[in-house]
Amino acid sequence: MKEEKASRTAAGTAAYRAAESMRSEGERVCYDPYAKRFLDGVYSLLAKSRLLTKIAIWYTDRIVPGLTGHVVARTRYIDDCLKACIEDGIEQLVILGAGYDSRAYRFEELKGKVKVFEADHPSTQKVKIEKVKSILGSLPDHVVYVPIDFDKEKLDKRLFESGYDNNLKTLFIWEGVTPYLTAEAVDETLAFIAKNSGEGSSIILDYAFQSVVDGTCELEGAKEILEQIERRGEHIIFGIEEGTVEGFLSQRGFSQVENVTGDLLKSMYFKGANQNRKVQLFHGYVHATVKLRE
Ligand SMILES: C[S@@+](CC[C@H](N)C(=O)[O-])C[C@H]1O[C@@H](n2cnc3c(N)ncnc32)[C@H](O)[C@@H]1O
Fold first, then answer.
1. CA 292 – CA 294 distance, rounded (Å)
2. How close is the Cα of 150 to the center of ligand 1, in Å?
3. Which of 68, 179, 221, 272 gives the lowest tally of CB atoms within 10 Å of its CB?
4. Ligand 1 midpoint to CA 10 (Å)
């Protein structure tokens, strides 16, 4: 990420969610009514017109096949997991690399009950905070903003300083972030979670296949996504070998790994008018539970 600038990939994912949310209730894969309120510049202009939005999405999917399908399916999958975790009694929610994630504001069940920590790069978070103030009038009491550069700072220090309680049953959401981090930063974050969260805590994350990072993935859209992210001034540098995520997470203190593929997300969420839409097939989507510590 460029040090002084808000993440452009965060704006991009919010734009795809905004476009999806403009579709009718029966057609949309995910629904995020706040997404359009976070947009700036050309994105906010596009979000004002259904026709322009349709053209922009059609164009994006031509340049990077399956990208918008991947983003909206990922958001829907994580929303569904979050709902289940709320019913299961989570006491704390930590959103890592939050970008313009609006779950803290659109899940009413969290308000007044579950403290939400939004950890993100300071450049992106500064812009987000101003947007939240302008959308809601003030910052909500149940949300704590934690500015952090995962590549340079320790998550434990920043979270504990912000009032994080390591005895509580916590859900960590890491949506669309691991590809941009160093392997050391990914390991440190997972180690923190494995050692510092209450019984029944879990993490939802997505990752790119290692072959995408290496530039050897032949699946549709893989080479194009690398180029697109570079054009936005960011870089995909971290991946996990396809088919190895269960072992990867087990070695790092997690069990009960639900590993979902793009194919599965497509069959779960893309029906009827959506059945011909593409979803990129070189990402994994995972919900894993922290192993009990002896
Ligand atoms: C693709 S966006 C995803 C944002 C959000 N989770 C979503 O799904 O809409 C990537 C996010 O990772 C954050 N990020 C990237 N590198 C980071 C770093 N080194 N430290 C902290 N955050 C980082 C960016 O600020 C951005 O919010």
1. 7
2. 10
3. 272
4. 6
* pLDDT at 293 > cutoff 90: no
Domain locations along the chain:
8-290
- How far apart (Å, rounded) are the C-alpha atoms in residues 155 and 293? 20
84: number of Cβ within 10 Å:
12
CB 15 within 8 A of CB 35: yes
Q: Give the model confidence (pLDDT) of 200-254 as tens digits.
A: 999 999 999 999 999 999 999 999 999 989 988 889 999 999 999 999 999 999 9
When pLDDT is averaged across residues 266-291 and rounded to a whole number, the result is 96
Q: ∠ CA(87), CA(89), CA(95), 5° rounding?
A: 95
Q: Which of 177, 182, 228, 231 to mutate to test the pocket of ligand 1 (most atoms within 8 A of CB)?
A: 177
Q: Ligand 1, residue 13: give the atom nearest the CA.
A: 9
Which atom belonging to ligand 1 lies closest to the Cα atom of 174? 6
* CATH architecture for the domain at 8-290: 3-Layer(aba) Sandwich (3.40)
In angstroms, what is the span from residue 272 Cα to ligand 1's centroid? 32
pLDDT at position 5 is 81
Tokens at 108, concatenated: 């009413």
The binding-site residues of ligand 1, defined as CB within 6 angstroms of any ligand atom, are 1, 7, 9-10, 13-14, 97-101, 120-121, 124, 148-151, 175-177, 180-181
Between helices 8-21 and 67-87, what is the axis angle to 10°?
Answer: 80
